[in-house]
């Protein structure tokens, strides 16, 4: 199955009304685990690496691993650059063969965000790649180092931004935050419905860790088709590795290696089933 674009994957999800998991990966084991989950559930997926995590997983190493794994996968896989802010890094990801990039201009004015998104769309077009942008601002932060204040997406802003850019996928802030939710997520479904009515592109939900299956499905019903998940995967890996270490005084490296793969796979599978993308490859 070829490496595909995000646009292609999300168009199908839109037609059949399911969500696609966009799983952040940080090393070879998490790449293998997430792809294993997709293959075992026969689901399309998106593999993504975030700009803020490149200090741990350099793009010149993690990028080619992601692309090579996607090319060999038995299900459609898009390879996406998450929360890109620097044009030169976005270009590097495209040069490595990523089929999709996000330009995150959520901290800019609508005008500046739209203008820079349009530049990234022009660049991505040369590679045949898709583009995601963000309007409003998802709270928390990608690497947990900042506590960015959430700015709820205004329906009128989403409409205007989409009319200007015609971006392939649009991330919204409807009460979702990156990282661990401090209290029960309280998503604004009526607002999401309003955004969906005025934006023709599939919508994206960041901060997918900790949302209930019921809420995921309501989001999907109201236009969310790409759901980003990072914290849940990494926390599951830590939990399983900790238990493994506690149970085995003498641990060999490859048991540990397999434990990471299995934990990433287990977490991704649970999300794939919640999003109902299983058997949609
Ligand atoms: P979580 O870490 O909260 O799952 O969010 C992931 C994300 O939105 C990546 O862009």
What would your notes on this structure say?
- The chain has 281 residues and is of the alpha/beta class.
- It has a single domain (6-275), classed as Aldolase class I (TIM Barrel, Alpha-Beta Barrel).
- The protein has 10 helices and 8 strands.
- It has an 8-stranded parallel β-barrel with strand order 1-2-3-4-5-6-7-8, surrounded by 9 helices.
- α6 links the parallel β5 and β6.
- The longest helix has 23 residues, at 253-275.
- The N and C termini lie close together (10 Å).
- Residues 24, 50, 82-83, 142, 178-179, 206-209, 228-232 line the site of 1,3-dihydroxyacetonephosphate.
- Keywords: Lyase.
- Its cofactor is Zn(2+).
| CATH class call | Alpha Beta
Query: Main beta sheet: strand number and arrangement?
Result: 8 strands, parallel, barrel
Instruction: Give me the number of helical elements.
Output: 10
Kindly report the average pLDDT value: 96
- DSSP strand tally: 8
- Mind telling me which CATH architecture this is? Alpha-Beta Barrel
Structural class: alpha/beta
Widest sheet: strand ordering = 1-2-3-4-5-6-7-8
Question: Approximately what portion of the residues adopt beta-strand conformation?
Answer: 5-15%
The CATH superfamily bears the name Aldolase class I
How would you name the oligomeric state of the polypeptide chains in this document? Answer: single chain
Q: Which segments are poorly predicted (pLDDT under 50) over 5 or more consecutive residues?
A: none
Helical proportion? 40-55%
Using only C-alpha atoms, the radius of gyration works out to: 18 Å
> What best-fitting shape do the alpha-carbon axes yield?
globular
GO molecular function, one term: fructose-bisphosphate aldolase activity
InterPro entries: Aldolase_TIM (IPR013785), Class_II_FBP_aldolase (IPR050246), FBA_II (IPR000771)
Keywords: Lyase
Enzyme class: lyase
